[in-house]
């Protein structure tokens, strides 16, 4: 007997809830914000909108379906199943945070705060949930992801971008190479390397691209192409700056070999879930075979 579909509702703790957890009561949180020229009602209103959206989506799940909820902080401990339909209720970034834990399950993005979120990934409103759940396996966009694989089999996936560098603000030292460029390798000292997708080109990757005035064409979200940038490469007698930006096709890869005591690679801004690299280890970054199946 096949299992009924399960709607997995992904949400995150609101700013209001974080304030109450830190200060104990609504009144104390309100006093804290007022002393800094802010009104707690703005934060509380966003909290109410988020909770209404979550309740509305939950009510739209068909009665014959199973249902589960998972908070962002628990994603790495949650076991997604093949029959799941994942409904992300919140901001665009929450879809990216969820994508790395999925294996082809369709994802519906619900915007809890239209006008505040860009709506690149959370494309729908709570009122659309019933219709979208009924047709979740049709009309999906398959968005390209990026992966990093270390020589000790550590693997990391991301929807927007992967950053390689140091855990703090120290200079990252490494050797950078392109697999399809005749074995050219350059020793570098920089603020790190950013490798991103077409989805990432709407965020951090785009800001680096724009600030640099790059002429590289940014990929579209479904395109099997990545763009990479070295941030603030430092020229010295031992380090170069000739390999600081480029593209990676579907079969190409960027390789980074650590020449620092510790480097990390993390995806989509989640530094707590990172690959750990020590001196001499190599990581390969390229287009991931998996895709995020986002309901259009």
From TrEMBL:
Any GO MF annotation of the entry: kinase activity
Keyword Flavoprotein: no
Domain of life assignment: Bacteria
Keyword terms, alphabetized: Kinase, Transferase
Transferase found in the keyword field: yes
TM ranges: none
InterPro entries the record matches: ATP-NAD_kinase_PpnK-typ_C, NAD/diacylglycerol_kinase_sf
PANTHER family assigned: NAD KINASE 2, MITOCHONDRIAL, PTHR13158
Protein name: Inorganic polyphosphate kinase
